[in-house]
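Sample 3 of the quickstart, ligand N-hydroxy-L-asparagine:
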Amino acid sequence: MSSRRDFIKKATIGTIGISTVLNCGKSAEEKHSGVASVKTQKKPIIISTWRHGLAANEEAWKQLKSKKPALDAIVSGVGISEADPNVQSVGYGGLPDREGKVTLDACIMDHNSDCGSVSFLQGIKHPIAVAKKVLENTPHVMLSGKGALQFALSEGFKEENLLTEKSKERWKKWLENSKYKPVINIENHDTISMLALDEAGNLSGGCTTSGAAWKMHGRVGDSPIIGAGLFLDNDVGAAAATGLGEAVIRTSGSAMVVELMRQGKTPFEACKEIVERIYNKHKNHKDMEYLQVGFIAINKQGEHAGYSIRPGFNYAVYDTIEGNRMESAASKMVKE
Ligand code: SD4
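Result:
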């Protein structure tokens, strides 16, 4: 009996080794073709959008490994980006709206489909932690604006100024021309979305952002909207978005990626199909000139992928096989 178990164990490890070797040197498109990696992932696994996802993954991984609940891991993980003034697209130090106000959006979702969200929240450094409190301590899913702030304060969060000198300078520079035409991959990007598959095989996710730079005061993007910026179904998989929120909301982006995985598509195929749909729907749209949208997705087997409209999108992956590293996402458009 035990020798049979040993054999199975060795055979599995062998598969991991071979698949890992086979993946080396392949393009993102080949790597995420959905063929190679189905049986190779061990749990847990965490994926997060953009390079700042590396530090976020590192923290979330520590928590998952020390058996902390997955939502705590997500809050601590993306909380690293929220607190970092050099990440000018999330939390403290985020680029402001056109009136110079930093307004934040975030949401969180667990394997029971419970979720919490805050939007248009000002003065609180960790909106993801407030979103978790909405999930836990209210009968609601979303709180917005002053009500969200009032709730955060009642939960013991501290109000502080989130506009750093660096972000204020960039805002002043922007005011010189005041044109709303977000710079691709810079001003309409870098939301941190994190998806985790824990050791028990349960999915969870979180998303937090200061939203599109120079947005109108009061504008809410996709990131706090369950189904748009983030969605998961614990029977199927999870997906999250980054990029121009308006385009993601118009197409219910993340929910659609999960639905395609339910129908049997790999994370790569699902992300690609929804990115192509968004691209096609916007071909003649006024937003097209600065349209960028990227998705990350993971399924119950731990297969993951990223795909975007324009090149330049990448995401951080942490698993037991290869540790924490960046993966580049394939894109619909090849060149700018
Ligand atoms: C939004 N999706 O508010 C977000 C933008 C983003 O870093 O990805 N920002 O539209």
